[in-house]
Amino acid sequence: MFRHLVIFLLLVPVAIAGAAQDVPNDNKPVPRSLDELETRIREILDEHNVPAASVALVNRDEVLWVAGVGLADRASDRAATADTLFRVGSITKSFTSLAVLRFVEDGDVRLEDRLRDLTPDVAFENPWAESDPIRLAHLLEHTTGFDDIHLAEYANNQDDPPLTLSEGLAFHPHSRVSRWRPGRYMSYCNSGPGMAAAVLEKLSGRPFEEIVTDRVLRPLGMTTATLLEPDGDQLATGYEGDGETPGDYWHITTRPSGALNASAREMAGLLRMFLNRGAVDGVQVWQATSIDRMERPATTAAARAGLAAGYGLSNSVTQNDGFVWHGHGGGMNTFVADYAYNTEHGLGFFVSINVSNGQALRQIRDALRGYLTRDLEPSPEPAADVSAADLAAVEGYYLDFTPRQEMGRFLNDLFSIAVVRQRNGELTIGSAFGEGTPLIALGGGRFRSENDRRASRIFVPDGLAPDGFAPEGEDGALLLGGRNYRRVSPASVWLRWGLTAFCIVMMLTSILFALIWVPRWAIHKLRGAEPPFSRASLARRTQPLGAILILVLSFISLAVGASDAIARLGAPTPMSIGFFVGSLAFALLALVSAVQWWRTRGEENVHRGVRVHSLLVNVALLLTVAGLVSWGLLGLRTWA
Fold first, then answer.
1. Which distant-in-sequence residues (6+ apart) come within 8 Å of 574 by Cβ?
2. Roughly how many angstroms between the first and final C-alpha of the chain, as a whole number?
3. How far is CA 153 from CA 89, 167, 226, 443, 460, in A?
4. Span 222-266, pLDDT tens digits
5. Could you give the 3-state DSSP secondary structure of residue 37?
6. In this predicted structure, what is the pLDDT of residue 17?
7. Of 97, 98, 183, 118, the residue nearest 146 (C-alpha)
8. How many angstroms separate the CA atoms of 339 and 267, rounded?
9. In the chain, count of helices (H) and strands (E)?
10. CA dihedral defined by 401, 402, 406, 408, rounded to 10 degrees?
11. For helices 608-630 and 574-599, what crossing angle results, to 10°?
12. Is residue 470 over pLDDT 60?
């Protein structure tokens, strides 16, 4: 249940690769016409009880189809149209990067400029500031090493008036601390684009909303798009997960990261601009080199090692059925959206729906991609002849060591383990408990999956120090791309799993044994008879049991809060305070139980089996306390 909370906190939809070209993930045939495509979209909306979708299809030369499908508002029966505004969430970041690139082209700023020189008033911490300063490009490529914004920032939905950008950045700066050297690893962070926008405000002396309107939206022909809440009924109503309950308009503290409202017709113009390398209706608004840089990651260790795929300036590469797409996804509390374009064939799509339903979005996206590529054949990069020794060098256990949020690090440590094996001259990557999927070697340490067209991962051996790596070999052998994996010893992984299993089993047995001894004790008490076990023996049972029950209730409180995490955990509520107090109470009672066991360890009237089991349970409790401390969960204030 807690894993669902952490996944919810990520908030930005992850692009999910489709299956084979002719049979999308939902096992429906690829639409062959626009009528079939619209019918399929309506079926998906009905299946998931999503009121409406905003859709655009383009090629380099024209808009192929732009439409609103379904109802923009259920209460008034208002139909969605091509001009209805939908929220596009983190797609906003692409517009922020486009604004930055306009300033770069004008010579007002450089992507390599140090952030501290550009915005000395914006709070952040970087322990490596002298050797590895945070630069403007790091903010847009998410390579600052910052934690993603915290729940308190998500929960701050002030709307009268909405926070200014400077107020939003000053509200809760505690998440902006570099956890590793900036410019090494990509880890998605919503504060970066807001800080980049603050640079533009300082350079121009104007609010970012005015900057992006004048320098980006208007040149693209986006005359109704806005980062502020629009008036009237221009905007589709966003709905909660049931598709029936209208949700609140979410203002968010850093609008440059996710506040844009735009129509399908306007987003079609953005797609065509990318396909035409910065030109809008024949006018070169952005230099082609700027668009190339936007699509290319440059500040990561993976990029410097030679991997072209990844996250550029608010523009990421996804690979689907052998085709390479550029674009960005986005999510709000009641909307999810995505845009992507293929430069090789000059095709692109946009979609937004007014319920935050990732499965529905994925199915519509599969249908759009399938339609656009229905008559095309992919041409994946062929495998290279790589020696068995070079393949063997990649084998091992790998841990994703750069979680998006530190609150979820314990999940990474337990579940984000990949195992690379060599079998019959081929590599596979998967979990420790399965065969995995093929990892196709392309040479130079580069690899791709079966569904990819080009390299999506790169292996960096221990001790290799390409330009920009400092100090040499600091993180050991790395497998980079999509996730940042560091090779770890199998013993450390199995020890972590073993200790976790031990703690869970011991705590479960304590609860199960209570189903036996509690009734025995209660019956004797009711009869007034001699207790079935001594006072010391009773303490050995009750104290660890109490700690365990408090821990269980604490995580239940957190799980209940996760059903509406922003409202219930982003502020002091019974759920968030319950976990804060409960985790501390658990630790205190666990320590008391351990001390009590030590003080009474020599009493002969305590059954030996009880003593041994009590010892093991107390060890499990202390290990759990240590784990909560190391992962930052003990006394966690989710609202702080």
1. 557
2. 22
3. 15, 11, 21, 44, 36
4. 999 999 999 889 999 999 999 999 999 998 899 999 999 999 999
5. helix
6. 30
7. 183
8. 8
9. 20, 19
10. -70
11. 140
12. no
Cα distances from 587 to residues 411, 521, 628, 638, in angstroms, run 20, 26, 9, 18
**Beta-carbon count within 10 A of 245 CB:** 11
Q: Tens digit of pLDDT for each residue in 504-554? A: 999 999 999 888 878 877 777 655 555 666 666 777 788 899 999 999 999
User: Token pair 């923009």 is at which residue?
Assistant: 72
- Measure the CA–CA gap between 196 and 395, rounded to whole angstroms: 39
Give residue 531's pLDDT. Answer: 64
Residue with tokens 């658990």: 586
- Mapped onto helix, strand or coil, the DSSP state of residue 21 is coil
Count of all residues that appear for the chain in the document: 640
Closest by Cα among 633, 631, 564, 563 to 403: 631
**Can you read off the two tokens belonging to residue 254?**
């850093």
What DSSP letter does each residue of 197-247 carry, written as one string?
HHHHHHHHSS-HHHHHIIIIITTTT-SS-BSSPPSTT-BPPPB-TTSSSBP
User: 42 φ, ψ to 5°?
Assistant: -65, -40
SS3 content of the chain, % helix, strand, coil (to 5): 40, 15, 40
For the whole prediction, is pTM greater than 0.85?
A: yes
Q: How far apart are CA 236 and CA 411, in angstroms?
A: 36
Cβ atoms 164, 582 nearer than 8 A: no
Contacts for 507 with CB less than 8 Å, ≥ 6 apart: 548, 551, 617, 620, 621, 624
Beta strands 347-353 and 336-342: pairing type?
A: antiparallel
311: phi then psi, degrees, rounded to nearest 5 = -110, 115
How far apart, in whole angstroms, are the C-alpha atoms of residue 414 and residue 231?
Answer: 47
Residue with tokens 């240590």, as numbered in its chain: 626
DSSP 468-481: T--STTTT-SEEEE
DSSP 416: -
Q: What is the rounded distance in angstroms from the CA atom of residue 347 to the CA atom of residue 112?
A: 32
Q: Which residues contact 28 (CB under 8 A, 6 or more apart)?
A: 40, 367
Q: Are 549 and 582 in contact (CB under 8 A)?
A: no
93-98 mean pLDDT: 98
Cα-Cα-Cα-Cα dihedral sign, residues 150, 152, 157, 162: negative
* The pair of three-digit structure tokens given for residue 406, joined into one six-digit string: 């530190």
Q: What pLDDT is stored for residue 6 in this prediction?
A: 39
Q: Residue 525's pLDDT is what?
A: 64
How far, rounded to the nearest angstrom, does the alpha carbon of residue 470 sit from its chain's CA centroid?
Answer: 27
The answer to whether residue 469 scores a pLDDT higher than 60 is: no
> How many angstroms separate the CA atoms of 381 and 519, rounded?
68
Which tokens belong to 50?
A: 């999503």
For residues 575-614, one letter each, b for 16 or more C-beta atoms within 10 angstroms of the residue's C-beta and e for the rest, the string is: bbbbbbebbbbbbebbeebbebbeebeeeeebeeebbebb
